[in-house]
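User: Working on a comparison across species. This one is Dyp-type peroxidase family from Catenulispora acidiphila. Can you predict its structure so I can line it up against the others?
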Amino acid sequence: MPKLSPADAAQPVVSPLTSAAMFLVLTIEDGGEDAVREVVPDLSAYARAVGFGYPEGGLACVTGFGSAAWDRLFGGPRPAELHPFVALDGPRHSAPATPGDILLHLRAQQLDLCYDFAEHVLRRLGGAVKVVDEVHGFRYHDNRDLLGFVDGTENPEGVEAVEAALVDAERDPDFVGGSYVIVQKYTHDMAAWRALSDLEQGLIIGRTKIDNIELPDAVKPKTSHVALNTVVGPDGEEQDILRHNMAFGSFREGEAGTYFIGYCATPEVTEQMLRNMFLGDEEGNQDRILDFSTAVTGGLFFVPAKSFLDDPPPAPGEDSPAPDASPSDSPAADPAPPARPRPTDGSLGLGSLKRS
Ligand code: HEM
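Assistant: Here's the predicted structure for Dyp-type peroxidase family from Catenulispora acidiphila:
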């Protein structure tokens, strides 16, 4: 089979902005691994089933796995840079690491498509998983966050988005088209934020509020969000991540926030941004946005290529037979595929939804 480019191999990481999103973080219960492995190859079929009748709905489903979950679910090579989210304790603000084995990032123009996909998948998974975080995000006006600023303007696009977000063969030949995604749920202190003028808010973000223009370097404070998130590599080139942040809110909970989600070909770039924000840059400048926004969750997941989900490697400890081994020249090898567990979802077990 010809080798796919990162863009062709990837799940829909690089895909257009939508009006709605659902972020589901799951943990896998003890003993739930087999049920999860059973459902993973059917994820793309569920997305087709739900989204096919609504081409304008733009349903995109991205699935990622945390570091510990990866080792529970999959044998074989692991993504080179996959590790747990690194919690940060800065002088004034903290970024906690919170539980999470699986991330489902669902996007569409209409929330019902995200809901239907999640409903099918979670029903199949049954008691094998626990939903530990759930955020329904919405597009707020012209892609603003609830602080009132346009969010996503400087996102890379096209080939630059692919290069920023997706693993290529040079970086990790076993995981071409994969992506490292970091998520954090932030809640805003809206009363304190609203007490500031637009000008003061703009100095905290690093852009003007109404017309969304980046402040000139001479004016932009070093403690601004944009200044601290402009990160350059050793070659002096700016390093990008691909963000799909969404606004969320609940009046009952008294909560208004931004769900931060950043994809990158390496977790290092996003982690550098987080260190700048929370711990401070080399001059000790910390991000003033944190005086008004509190990180309440934090997780790091690896989003493998589509083909990995469709045909995951054997479970840990279930080694696959060597490619040229046959039962006759390898009497010790058991050529039978591992038995599929019985359905745990109460379904009739009519078999896989996978395309044949
Ligand atoms: C830029 C909002 C968290 C990385 C921006 C901008 C806004 C914004 C309004 C300017 C427009 C643009 O998108 O280019 C927020 C809010 C956050 C948040 C409300 C949560 C409270 C984060 C986090 C990271 C991050 C946690 C990284 C770990 C960036 C980057 C830029 C940016 C890389 C573009 C900088 C540039 O090159 O101009 N953000 N952000 N943001 N943000 Fe955030």
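For your comparison, note: The pocket of protoporphyrin IX containing FE is lined by residues 145, 147, 149-154, 184, 186, 205, 207, 225-226, 229-230, 241, 258, 260, 262, 270, 273-274, 289, 293 (CB under 6 Å).

User: Helpful, thanks.
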